[in-house]
């Protein structure tokens, strides 16, 4: 079992920055593929960014060049640095861990990000 706890959400003006953190426990962090998803009101949850066990990263087109995902295996933590935030980035952001050996997904509780005009 993997437990994930997100933090760092809040309210920011358009053009501003936030850094989200997701702390993991209950598994060897370095073997987990970590992702950030988001869900805006009335919309489906969407993938924002992923970082693999080899630190390969992938991003949704909507956030490329503005968001950066990173991981610190020593701290069992994945981060999402969000710059040049837009009103349309407003959503609940969720951290997800994928453990390939058991083909299991684990989700955090989410953290609200609100970007005001």
Over all CA atoms, what is the radius of gyration? Answer: 13 Å
Oligomeric nature of the chains:
single chain
Major sheet attributes = 7 strands, mixed
In angstroms, what separates the terminal alpha carbons?
40 Å
Features:
117 residues, mainly beta, 4-stranded antiparallel beta sheet, globular
Would you write up a description of this structure?
This protein has strands at 3-7, 10-13, 18-25, 32-39, 46-51, 57-59, 67-72, 77-82, 91-99, 104-107, 111-116. With 117 residues, the protein is an all-beta fold. The model has no long low-confidence stretch (mean pLDDT 96).
Produce a short descriptive summary:
With 117 residues, the protein is mainly beta. The chain has no helices and eleven strands.
Helices and strands in order:
Layout (H helix, E strand, L loop, with lengths): L2 E5 L2 E4 L4 E8 L6 E8 L6 E6 L5 E3 L7 E6 L4 E6 L8 E9 L4 E4 L3 E6 L1
Parallel strand pairs: 2-11
Antiparallel strand pairs: 1-3, 3-8, 4-5, 4-9, 5-6, 7-8, 9-10, 9-11
